[in-house]
Design goal:
Chain B: Belongs to the binding-protein-dependent transport system permease family. The complex is a heterodimer of chains A (about 550) and B (about 290). By secondary structure, chain A is α/β, with parallel strands linked by helices. Chain A contains 19 helices and 19 strands. Helix content of chain B is about 75%, strand content about 0%. Classes of the chains: A alpha/beta (about 550), B mainly alpha (about 290).
């Protein structure tokens, strides 16, 4: 099975890494293949005044809640629609929801909206195909989620989508309170062709760095999941101690296409995310000495036999299963996988203690994390008369309701008594009807960042997740090319990077020597790497 | 005939046992895993051969809410109506083009053959369906692929092989084209028609891509669309992309149950058509 998008993003570590959604953040006015989005007026941020959290928000660190808030805030007054209809198309990762006629939750949402919301829900795996054919058919819905697949995003946006800057830039966004709570960094990712053309579906900015099963680490006297080691060498020794083939237990499990979960080690060695910029000159992450050190360290780990045997051929599901089954003490996966691991590992063994891992520095300092999960995707609004665009934005504002609002509860859990009941601490517990009907992907049009909350996890879950995010977000480095576009990267980036990633996998597995990396990088530069660099540099120089 | 030696028998037995295991293993594993608990599946590394605590939970999840049942009815409808419509159209075209002296027959034959070599592509097909006003209808799943060039060639080859004298004598007795087709050609063509029917039925039963492109109303979704989504839900993409706090993806048992549900109808039909199958495929293979 193919690696996940996040694996690809991470594995690429450069031009190829940003070839999908981030590449869309360019301008139509190309200058030698590169283009920029500087000087675009973004919406102001007006934080949502929601219920008091147990763990406070700080900057981009989301608030944390031990239990579901008792006093909710109504975030949208009146009805956004006046009897009209708004159409939309988006993706789902869940099962298809029952249609409006059989879905009381959908009907209730429309009641609150004051009109009809006709949405087409497409499986995430098939979304790109459906998106492209819909575009080709020329019948765009009012809101359409875009993730990847177009080569000419700026031109497409200019021709068919509404310039949202006219409605949202600066303090104009105050009219839409829920959209106004979205962090600025998310809006930066929605600038296309020099204009604000889209609404973000926010994530937690960093995609996370993996998970540890503290049950095994505690056996070695390690208690703090935000600092499991103080140096690379110490980590190597810990991995050796964690590995016990007789018990079918290894320190790490990896997966196919991830270069032995190289992200775990690039973060320890502070490899930049995608590119490093110095005086206007770009160096690809894979050209840096830190990258070479990270590869050499991964090789050392491989030689020490701490990877689960054969896991280099695992799918990411198998990798997760190995972690859940206690065959691996540590695993790389995205932060949103935490609820699944929390439930899965504890069901498997009562002493299992899954927690998010925070990268340490190889030299005793801090590691880095990456701003690789700012948004899931973004939503275009179809070009129309200003009144219609405003109507669509009012609907999007409703759908982006943050945690702690009445609207969020309706969109996420449905109607109390119909779709959910409450447990002793007040957490909503979906009933069978709720489980079936609440799969409408309302949050895949526009969404605020997720907060830290897990009904079954309670205080322990929230503490671990919040501690990890509070550490990871301040150390999250951005890709300096975000917001700029390289045509060559869009079209060829992944293909150009493939020989390098293949070689790195071979180096770690001992099938090739580290010295061969320089030759592969020379080839990459000659075949298009330098062209990508040049396009980004000229785009950045243009401002 | 010479009696087989015990060496020979043993060797044959071993070879056959290995083949049977190779064929049966994945099927048994799929069925057994679909009946296992999540805990047991993870403990066994993903596949279970003998569930210690068999449960129908996966099937309960799949059939809850009636979504799969509804899709099953849709798929059966599309498969039955589609197969019937395709069969009628293919038989008509194949019979017409098997008769000599048909004006423009050679040209039509060439066009049909050409469609085996070149495909219009997804977007032109989408535009055509849209222009014909078929979007959001079951007809969009049937009409664009009503006649498969391959099936048409198979039938036409068989029809051409029927002795001309037989048809000529019927014509002399006053039979028209339709009577010749129904009374002489079709009764002689049971084997290839059974094969072509199976090809069409499997094609419509598995109809996924067209359904994904042309249908927006969830109530019209066919089984493969729903089943594929159930399988994908367990994939890492879903896990990685699910929002914090969302329900974890379902067990592998659900994915395996999905495979069982998709397989069973075809498995049920196959034995009834098997005796025609070999004969029919060979007919298509050796007649030019």
């Amino acid at each position: 099975m193919a690696p996940t998008r996040r694996d690809v993003l991470r594995a690429g570590l450069g031009a190829a890494a940003t070839a999908t959604l981030l590449s869309a953040c360019g301008t139509g006015a190309d200058s030698g293949g590169g283009s920029s989005n500087a000087g675009v007026a973004l919406p102001d941020r007006i934080p949502f005044a929601g219920p008091t959290p147990d763990l406070p928000a700080a900057g981009d660190v989301p608030p944390g809640y031990y239990a579901y808030p008792k006093q909710l805030v109504r975030s949208v007054s009146g009805t956004p629609l006046s009897g009209g209809t708004v159409t939309g198309m988006t993706m789902t990762f869940l099962s298809f929801p029952p249609g409006r006629d059989e879905n009381a939750a959908w009907q209730e949402v429309e009641k609150r909206l004051g009109g009809k919301l006709d949405i087409s829900v497409v499986s995430a795996a098939d979304y790109e195909t459906k998106f492209n054919t819909t575009i080709a058919g020329g019948e765009l819905p009012d809101m359409i989620l875009y993730s990847s697949g177009l080569n000419n995003v700026p031109q497409f946006a200019q021709a068919t989508c509404a310039d949202l800057g006219e409605h949202l830039a600066g303090n104009k966004i105050a009219e839409y309170k829920n959209l106004a709570a979205i962090p600025t960094v998310a809006w930066q990712n929605c600038v296309v062709g020099g204009k604000l053309y889209a609404l973000p579906v926010c994530r937690n900015i960093t995609g996370g760095s993996g998970f540890v099963n503290m049950r095994f680490f505690k056996e070695l006297g390690i208690e703090d999941h935000t600092r499991i080691a103080n140096s690379a060498e110490e980590f190597l020794e810990i991995c050796k101690k964690l590995t016990d083939p007789g018990k079918d237990r290894y320190a790490l499990a990896t997966s196919n296409g991830s270069m032995y979960s190289l992200t775990l080690f690039t973060q320890i060695f502070r490899v930049p995310y995608g590119w490093r910029v110095d005086g206007g000159k770009l160096t690809s992450a894979r050209e840096t000495p830190e990258f070479k050190e990270a590869v050499a360290f991964a090789r050392k780990l491989y030689q020490a036999g701490v990877f689960y045997p054969g896991s280099e051929g695992f799918t990411t599901v198998q990798r997760g299963n190995a972690f859940t089954a206690g065959q691996a003490a540590m695993v790389y996966d995205g932060f949103p996988a935490f609820p699944g691991f929390w439930t899965g590992l504890r069901a498997q063994h009562p002493d299992n203690d899954p927690r998010p891992y925070v990268p340490f520095g190889h030299d005793g300092g801090d590691g880095v994390t990456y701003q690789d999960n700012v948004i899931l995707a973004y939503t275009f609004v179809k070009k129309a008369e200003p009144d219609k665009v405003k109507e669509v934005l009012r609907v999007a504002d409703f759908l982006a309701a943050p945690f702690g609002s009445e609207e969020y509860q309706l969109l996420k859990y449905g109607v109390e008594g119909v779709h959910f009941t409450r447990d002793a601490t007040g957490n909503p517990v979906p009933n069978e009807r709720g489980t079936q009907e609440m799969t409408v992907p309302w949050d895949k049009f526009a969404a605020n960042p997720p907060v830290v909350y897990n009904a079954s996890g309670g205080k322990a879950y929230a503490d671990y997740a919040h501690q990890a995010l509070a550490k990871m977000l301040p150390m999250a480095v951005a890709n300096p090319t975000t917001g700029y576009r390289s045509e060559t990267s869009d079209k060829e980036g992944t293909k150009l990077a493939k020989p390098v990633t293949d070689l790195v996998t071979s180096i770690i597995a001992g099938r090739a020597e580290l010295a061969e990396l320089d030759g592969a990088l020379d080839t990459w530069r000659k075949n298009g790497g330098d062209k990508i660099r040049g396009e980004y540099e000229s785009a950045m120089a243009a401002g | 005939m010479e009696r087989p030696t015990w060496h020979g028998l043993t060797l044959k037995g071993i070879v056959l046992t290995v083949i049977v295991i190779a064929v049966a293993y994945p099927f048994v594993a799929v069925v057994a895993t679909s009946l296992s608990t999540d805990k047991e599946i993870i403990a066994n590394g993903g596949l279970v051969l003998w569930p210690t605590e068999p449960t129908l939970d996966a099937y309960r999840v799949i059939f809850a809410g009636g979504q799969v049942t509804h899709a099953l009815v849709n798929s059966l409808g599309v498969a039955v109506v589609g197969t019937a419509a395709s069969l009628v159209a293919t038989v008509m075209m194949a019979y017409g083009l098997s008769r000599r002296g048909l004006t423009g027959g050679r040209f039509i034959l060439m066009v049909a053959l050409l469609s085996m070599l070149f495909n219009a592509g997804t977007i032109p097909n989408f535009l055509l369906v849209k222009e014909l006003g078929l979007m959001g209808t079951f007809a969009a799943l049937v009409l664009p692929g009503l006649i498969s060039a391959f099936n048409f060639i198979v039938l036409r080859s068989f029809f051409t092989s029927i002795p001309r004298e037989l048809i000529d004598s019927a014509t002399v007795d006053g039979a028209g084209d339709l009577r010749v087709l129904f009374k002489i050609v079709l009764p002689l063509s049971k084997a290839p028609i059974a094969v072509v029917s199976l090809f069409y039925a499997v094609g419509y039963w598995n109809s996924f891509f067209n359904a994904m492109l042309y249908l927006d109303d969830r109530d019209m979704y066919t089984l493969p669309l729903i089943l594929r989504q159930l399988v994908l839900m367990g994939q890492p993409l879903a896990k990685g992309e699910a929002f914090l706090g969302e329900t974890p993806p379902p067990q592998q048992a659900i994915q395996m149950a999905v495979v069982v549900i998709a397989l069973v109808p075809i498995l049920l039909v196959y034995p009834f058509l098997q005796r025609f199958f070999t004969k029919g495929v060979l007919t298509g293979a050796i007649k030019g």
